[in-house]
Amino acid sequence: MGMPTTARTVLFHELGGPEVLKIEDAEVPDPGVGEVLVRVEALGLNRAEALFRAGTYYYQPSLPASRLGYEASGVIEAVGEGVTELAGGDLVMTGPGIEMSAQGVYAERVVLPETAVVRRPESVDAVTGAAAWLTYTTAYGALLETAGTKPGDHVLITGASSGVGTAAIQVARRIGAIPLATTRTEAKRQQLLDLGAEHVIVSGGSGAETVAKETRRLTGGRGVEVIFDAIGGPAFRPLGDALAEGGTVVWYGWLDPRPAELPWNWPVTVHTYANFALITTPGGRRRSTAFLNAGLRDGGFRPVIGEVFDGLDRIQDAHRLMESNEHTGKIVVRI
Fold it and tell me: pTM (2 decimals)?
């Protein structure tokens, strides 16, 4: 096929901090049945990768020589037997169902199952593409498919300056819902308003009780129909007081790993949300990709990029920034 048989790839041989990430030449096989070869143009970093590298994710890396990463944008260079939906030259984003140790995308080229890539619209550049897939499909799956959010619903989004939080503000707006955002510091208020938050509640050192009270005040005493929560922990029960009667909580992250109690203002529906359950089914992948690409094409979805690093050699620096929590939105490494 005339393709290079090795590619610069990020590997790690032991658990630890950003310093364990090494760049080595790894073999790139020809794509097999149902597989595609992707030339990677940009990587989108996710918190999961820092956890995986440190050994604290929900599954362990295979050491030595574990790969890393699941979100990238690139170009199809070759397709294996039986691949009919994609062809050489197609622009794609990666993500669905990737096992990071074996299939990690931190590399100049990577072979993946065709089910692990989705098309990227021609108008979407590589950096935007690398910052879009996970955040918007998570917000879509949680708010629309799981919570059934409707036009006119008020949605309270906790930890709203994260990649998923900023996407959720835009997803809520797109369907005519009204997003209320929480953030810890005054510094991020204006950016969240600019993204489309109707109100921003700065929690500072105050607890969930204060957030719930302010949410009720802002909704004329009624409360919100949906809470989209990234935090959990002991704040989960008092946060539930922000819900309107019969409201729904979608809990998608445990930034606070301590035990959480259910809200007491029944009736209330509580869902936990795992994005892989949606995007590893053909129908879920089709619907979430169609929704994402529609928003990217018409400019309704504008991924928030915290910082762009140039070159695979900057991967340790990119991970250090991710762990500092000093950024808003997505960290991207351009290759």
Answer: 0.93
